[in-house]
Amino acid sequence: MRVLVTGANGFLGAQIAAALRDAGHEVVAGLRRPRASDLEQGKAIRCDFARDVQMESWQARLVGVEAVVNCVGILRETRDDTFQRVQVDAPLALFKACTVAAVGRVIQISSIGAAEDGEFVASKHRCDAGLAMLDLDWLVLRPGLVYSAHGTYGGTSLLRALSALPGMLLLPGDGRQALRPVAMRDLALAVVSGIEAPRRFRQVVEIVGPDIITLRDYLLAWRRWFGLPGPIIVSMPSALVGIAVAIGEFWGRGPLCRVIANLLQRGRVGSEGALEATRALIGREPLRLVDALRERSSQLPDLMFARWYVLEHLLIFTLAVVWIASGLVGLSLPESVVVAALPGWKPETTRLVTLSSSIADLTLGVALLTGRATRTVLCCMLAMVIAYTAAIGITAPSQWLDPFGGLLKNLPIAATLMALLWMAPRRR
Fold it and tell me: Is domain 2-298 classified as CATH 3.40.190.10?
């Protein structure tokens, strides 16, 4: 069967697409920025859920498609990517186009929860309700907390990062929030079963694991998987958690956001019959967390990625602060101090360079802090550091002997910028 999987580069979509391929299906990946070769070979289509909100924009893309699996979702809104457009308008436009294109089955990946859990869940459920009104053979899957030993993204990355903190375990509140984690393999199996089942569905199924555990036990299980020693457990007061989340929302990037906080603060266990429904769909008992983790031993890159998830955003934030502070200091220094710092330069050249570099520092620092074109900003910062170090190091070599190491400190800064550029993957 030829199956269109939207969001096929995400945590859920990538593994669902892989499971469908393993089951012998032909997968067409719906991506915002697909590779040209995949477009030419019919392995992908270009789609943008922030813009493709009209049924007509989907019809040509569904030629030859026999089933659709929608895995698109966002945790944080931006100017273009809003919950309403990405999680309601665009998928419903796709589903309406499916009715015209005679697509055999549609599977929507939704979320366990209630509208009170926040707009992430509420918008997902509005889309589910809209799908239920269409003349389609549809299946809505509402998974609990999805995990995988083979990869993470978004909220699952944050939880693994929390479990991997050196020496301690930070818990929001007392860590007794109830979870019913479900293995990614079971969710993927539910999708494959939903695609292949001969019967009509037109139903909502909550996909859950067999055990209800606390957030504390969930994080400790991952910590044991990493092979880390028992931690000092630190309970964070709800007020402090709220401040951290508010900062994350204001910053507009990083691991902390309102959606994840809401999902963790409320019960994520599903309805009373969720486990039986999961068993019926996948044809077996879903995996327990301890068994799923036992199937694959952790490797050093797993621990490194978990810690990098937090460290990356910490480095970006501190670099932005350094650049902004450098720009403000450069603009506020007295002219005599600026000229005296580089005695080998002409005063007018020194003043011009100081003014222009201070404005550039301020501009790049603000741009990095607000998350606009991060890779481009990091490249500009690296170019500035190299140019600044080379120009001053050659024309004023005495600066290498500065007792505070002003010029020498540019070397680790440049290395940090290169690490951020090399470690951050380009998402399609």
Answer: no
